[in-house]
Design a protein that fits this description.
The complex is a heterotrimer of chains A (277), B (305) and C (248).
Chain A: E1 5-16, E2 19-31, E3 35-39, H1 46-54, E4 62-64, E5 67-70, E6 73-74, H2 80-86, E7 91-94, H3 98-101, H4 108-119, H5 124-137, H6 143-147, H7 156-168, E8 174-178, H8 186-203, E9 206-211, H9 214-220, E10 223-228, E11 231-237, H10 247-254
Parallel strand pairs in A: 3-9, 3-10, 7-8, 8-9
Antiparallel strand pairs in A: 1-2, 1-4, 1-5, 5-6, 10-11
Helix pairs in contact in A: 4-5, 4-7, 5-7, 7-8
Chain B: H1 2-12, H2 20-36, H3 39-56, H4 58-61, H5 94-130, H6 132-147, H7 150-161, H8 165-192, H9 195-201, H10 207-243, H11 255-262, H12 271-298
Chain C: E1 3-14, E2 17-28, E3 32-37, H1 43-51, E4 58-63, E5 66-67, H2 74-79, E6 80-83, H3 97-108, H4 113-123, H5 140-152, E7 158-162, H6 170-187, E8 190-195, H7 198-204, E9 207-212, E10 215-221, H8 222-226, H9 233-242
Parallel strand pairs in C: 3-8, 3-9, 6-7, 7-8
Antiparallel strand pairs in C: 1-2, 1-4, 4-5, 9-10
Helix pairs in contact in C: 5-6
Chain lengths: 277, 305, 248
């Protein structure tokens, strides 16, 4: 399986009033056409990793990498315009809360059409047709009605599905999902994940699933990397999660309350300073 | 020497303040650093500090008397080494008049701020927190005051109360509070539904306590910024009233009145009106720069606050 | 077991939207009772109605056997306290921890404030170095500890917990849940806890009620969750969802 994305020694640093903050400190991994989960708590640098790949790091931060290549293209040395052309077209990103990531003043249909027409030369009628098809593909039952609705007029789950539709319509090869289901109810989460799963499999896409939920990620993805304090502390196959070796991964698994295990008090993570070294 | 400054700075920025005083000072220090990083804001601060110093030391700084002039020899002299800003039609040194006039400027600005800001703050927070008919009544009263152009309303008040700088101050204060009420009310509405206010309600705090101790502190920064930015306008309104003869009365060296009396000579002896006009310009600019700087430094959204 | 908190056929209406529909529950003294549901289930509304933050359309609420009226009095606030969900919103941004803890003491007229504050901080595992910090200088877990300290400083008997750990990282959540359990044991408190996370409720509570669309779906013991001894379809769905993603 040839590598779709190769990341080597990725570093992201932010200047602040009190010094420099290293959000990502030497992250390396490669991704084929598979589902990779990046798990970490807040401050682990997982979101910044995703954004660095997309090229969406805030301008005041510094991004560096020994290698950051997508399908053979060196993303670090690519001129701005070409990088932008990749975005949305070949690499897409879904964010956490559709309330904040969809344009509130445009109808859902129009936003999706616009995304399509930005990347492909299609006429309005064809764009509309394909948008409706895409809305059906994410299991929105009445696509014509939802086409004319605004983001605030639909539920969270439907908004997220619309976002997926918008990101997949240009048929990207790589999808980065940053906490795509964290803002959704638990029953809706599974519906959305099912849709995402099917679409990714059907199109042979690569997926990076960023989340704080280790259990969810390990049940959804093929491989998982665990991040702590800007570094990768463990990389393993999702099915091997029970045999995780790094104490942070084990600690993270253990500290979650479980319905069928009654442990009082809950085992607490004993953070060792050498994990962040 | 540097180590003393360093340890003091460390103490202020300490992550574990050991007393209320240390925490408060530390926070003030952070705000000061943010403010002083802004060059223009420092220029504004310098101007205002200069204004205060000049006003305080007017008697010492002024070379001549501001009220007694040499009618015989020194009428309408152009700027020179003896009279930096020249003299007016009554032979008075304009520089000295401007220096003494700074006291009146400060007088007007401070009094208006002291009277108008608390009224606006109280009306706005009470209206915003109480809601319902109290809010409606207070806001309609505010709207009525806002409906009149400031200068016209001030004129009406002064005309009713009689000319004089004290009445001018009162008139301006009465017309200045409505925008502060609006700002305070807007902030209160934002803050009213937050969890920390609910938490205090759940402790059994009375509405008065909540408004005074929990809501007002949140409105103060916006208010300070707005008041500072308004000061330029207040000076100009006072100058306007003085210009119309309804504010400071002669021989008070109030800058607006000076422009008024210098109007007659503007073509040939421009300095009589020009110098006080320039003084107003500089001070207004100073307040504007200061206000902008305060807004950037006090903005609660920017991280540290 | 004496009833500590009792709700009978509660109805809450917001602008013609029925947020709570005939909800009843009964929590015994020293018990930990959970409310589980998704968004729109009304679980938080129920908590707020008990606290008096939300007006009630009909139905009764009784604390310690006494029925509550429209308004709550100071005596109520000494008995019942609440911990909010968002640690970043429940502490006043302009007040130090010390000032935050002083407020309930001042309102209720406690005299030995200094001692109480120190003890409160100790109890939640925060040292004296935290006393004069502002809330933006604290992490999420630390803020939530301060919120708990603030709730406990007036020595209530009932604690209402509105998703107290939902906004925290998993590792911090474990610490805060352990703290809550310890505090409950030490002070013999009665808990009414709201969460969308079934596992958290199963861990913290002895009994729970599942809610959906403003109505009570099912009341059951936490142990029944582990044995999957549930009667309602919706409860079963929630249980299934909490197990994670299953590829179909």
């Amino acid at each position: 399986m040839s590598a779709l994305l190769e990341v080597e020694d990725l570093r992201v640093t932010f200047p602040t009033r009190t010094g420099v903050v290293e959000a990502v400190r030497g992250v390396s991994f490669s991704l084929g056409r598979e589902r990779l989960g990046i798990v970490g708590e807040s401050g682990s640098g997982k979101s910044q990793t995703g954004r660095a790949i997309m090229g969406l790091t805030p301008p005041q931060a510094r991004v560096s990498a020994a290698k950051l290549s997508f399908d053979g293209l060196d993303l670090m040395s690519l001129p701005g315009e070409q990088r932008r052309a990749l975005r949305g077209n070949r690499i897409a990103m879904i964010l956490q809360d559709p309330k904040y990531s969809l344009d509130p003043v445009m109808t859902i249909g129009r936003q999706i059409m616009e995304t399509l027409r930005t990347h492909e030369k299609v006429g309005k009628t064809e764009a509309r047709e394909r948008t409706l098809q895409m809305l059906e593909a994410v299991q929105i039952r009445d696509p014509k009605r939802v086409f004319d609705l605004h983001p605030h007029e639909v539920s969270g789950g439907m908004g997220q599905r619309a976002m997926i539709a918008m990101m997949l319509i240009a048929e990207p090869e790589l999808m980065i999902a940053d906490e795509p289901t964290s803002a959704l109810d638990v029953t809706v989460q599974l519906d959305v994940l099912n849709i995402l799963d099917r679409l990714v499999a059907d199109r042979g896409m690569g997926l990076i699933f960023i989340s704080h939920d280790l259990r969810l990620v390990s049940s959804f993805c093929d491989r998982v990397i665990v991040m702590y304090a800007g570094k990768v502390v463990e990389e393993l196959k999702a099915s091997d999660l029970g045999r995780a070796e790094h104490p942070y991964t084990r600690g993270l698994l253990d500290c979650m309350p479980r319905i069928d295990a009654d442990r009082h008090p809950l085992p607490v993570l004993d953070r060792k300073p050498e994990w962040a070294a | 020497m540097s180590t003393v400054a360093e340890t003091r700075r460390e103490w202020l920025l300490s992550e574990r303040p050991a007393s209320r005083m240390q925490a408060r000072l530390g926070r003030a220090y952070v705000t000061w650093r943010r403010f002083s990083a802004n060059r223009l804001a420092m220029v504004g601060l310098f101007i205002i500090v200069a204004l205060i110093v000049v006003a305080a030391l007017a008697d010492v700084l002024a070379p001549y008397s501001p009220t007694i002039g040499d009618l015989k020899n020194a009428r309408l002299l152009p700027p020179s080494a003896q009279h930096w800003f020249g003299t007016d039609d009554l032979g008075r040194d304009i520089l000295s008049r401007i220096i003494h006039g700074s006291r009146w400027t400060l007088f007007v600005v401070v009094l208006v701020a002291i009277i108008a800001a608390p009224i606006g703050l109280l009306v706005g927070t009470v209206a915003g927190y109480a809601g319902g008919w109290i809010d409606a009544v207070l806001m309609r009263i505010t709207d009525i005051f806002l409906a009149f152009p400031k200068l016209v309303l001030a004129l009406a008040f002064v005309a009713a109360l009689g000319p004089g700088i004290e009445n001018a101050v009162l008139a301006i204060a009465v017309t200045s509070w409505p925008p502060y009420a609006r700002i305070a009310r807007a902030e209160t509405l934002t803050v009213r539904n937050s969890d920390y206010i609910k938490a205090v309600q759940l402790m059994g705090a009375s509405p008065l306590r909540i408004v005074l101790r929990h809501i007002m502190p949140m409105c103060i920064s916006s208010l300070i910024v707005r008041v500072t930015l308004d000061m330029a306008g207040i000076i100009l309104t006072a100058a306007g009233l003085g210009f119309l003869g309804l504010g400071a009365q002669p021989p008070l060296p109030e800058w607006g009145a000076m422009i008024a009396s210098g109007r007659r000579f503007i073509l040939d002896q421009w300095w009589v009106a020009g110098a006080p006009g320039f003084a107003i310009l500089i001070v207004s600019l100073g307040f504007n720069l200061l206000g902008d700087g305060l807004r950037d430094a006090l903005d609660p959204r920017s991280g540290d606050q | 077991m004496t009833s500590m908190l009792r709700v009978d056929q509660l109805n809450v209406v917001f602008d013609r939207f029925q947020a709570l529909r005939g909800v009843s529950l009964d929590v015994g003294q020293g018990e930990s009772f959970g409310l589980v549901g998704e968004s729109g289930s009304g679980k938080s509304t129920l908590l707020r109605a008990i606290a008096g933050l939300v007006p009630v359309a009909s139905g009764t609420i009784a604390v310690g056997g006494q029925k509550l009226g429209k308004k709550r009095d100071k005596a109520f606030y000494r008995k019942v306290q609440m911990v909010f969900q968002d640690p970043y919103g429940s502490l006043h941004p302009r007040q130090t921890v010390d000032r935050l803890l002083q407020e309930p003491l001042a309102i209720h007229g406690f005299s030995d404030g200094e001692q109480r504050i120190r003890r409160a901080l100790d109890e939640v595992g925060l040292g004296s170095g935290f006393r004069f910090r502002y809330s933006h200088q604290l992490s999420g877990g630390q803020r939530q500890r301060v919120a708990i300290a603030r709730a406990l400083i007036v020595e209530p008997s009932i604690l209402l917990l509105d998703e107290p750990t939902s906004a925290l990282d998993a590792s911090v959540q474990a610490e805060v849940l352990n703290l809550l359990e310890q505090v409950r044991r030490d002070r013999e408190l009665t808990f009414l806890m709201v969460s969308h996370d079934l596992a958290v409720i199963a861990h913290m509570c002895e009994r729970l009620m599942v809610m959906q669309n403003g109505e009570a779906v099912e009341s059951l013991a936490a142990t029944s969750l582990a044995t999957r001894d549930v009667s309602q379809h919706y409860t079963r769905r929630l249980l299934k969802a909490s197990e994670g993603f299953v590829r179909t």
